[in-house]
Amino acid sequence: MLQPAARVERPARALLGWMQPNEALLMLTGRRQDVAPTDEQRQLVERLRDGVARRATGIDQSGIEQPATAALTPYIADLEKDQAAAGLIASGCRVVLIDLARVIAAQPLVHVDHADERVAAAQLGDIASIARVSLPTTQPVELPATFDQAQKAWVLTSANPNLRLIGAGQGQAPQGPPVLGFSVALVTSFVRIARYRERYILVDGYHRAHGFLKVVPAFVSEAPSFEGLGLPPVGMLPQDAFLGDRPPLLADYLSDEVSAAVMVPATQKTIAIVGLELQNVG
Question: Model's pTM, two decimal places?
C-alpha cells in the first residue's frame, strides 16, 4: 500500500465567523479530533460569530467591475489562442478589471505562507504583467513521477490541487508491445469570478486573489444556477454564508473581527496509476 505522508501544518486565515461553532473549533485545533478546544478558543469563536451578526445586512458591489483597458488587448489575444483560456472564453467568460477586495468569498480559508509568492512576478503598475499572473497562459511543467515496483504503480504527488488525470491513451513502444496509460497535467488555474443572483463570487484563484486584494484582470461569467457557479461540491462554506444577508468578502480573511489565524494540515494531491493483473475463474 502507498504510505501516507507525515503530518505537516501550514498557516492560514480562516473565516471562522461564518462557520458553525463545531467546525470553527475544529479549525482552531488544526482539525485534530483528539484535541479538545480551550475556553479561549470557544470565546474567540463566539466573538467572531458575533462580529458577523453585528454587520449590516445586504451587500453593495456596484461598480466592482470595469471594462478591460486597451493595454490588455494584446494579452487578451494571447488568451484567445490558449487552449484552457479559450475554452472559458467560448463558454461566456469575459476579461474585466475587478476589485477583488469586494468579491464574495466562498472558501473557508486561504493559506498565507505563499500568497505573496504567488503574485510576486506581477509588476506594480503594469496591467499586462498582473494579467500574466491572474490569467496565465498554459506553460509546460515537468511532473516528476516515481515507480513503485512492488505495487506496479506510477506515483505523482504535488502540493498543487490542480494536478489531474486529463485523458487516457495508447501507443506502441519502439520494437515492443503496446503501451496503455493516462495523460497527467497541472490544469491551468485562473482568477475567476461568477455572477450569481447579482453577486460576484470568487470561484477559482483564491490564493492569488488574497495576494492581490486590489483591482486586477480576471475572468467573469454569468451563473444561471447555483450549479453553474462551478464551486467544488465539498470543502466550501455553508451556502447560507456566502448567499446570505452578510456574506464574507475576500478582504475579510484579514479582518480580526470575523476571521483568525489557524494552523491546518497541509494537503497534497497524489495520482497513482496502478497496473493490476486479474484472473477470473469460471
Answer: 0.88
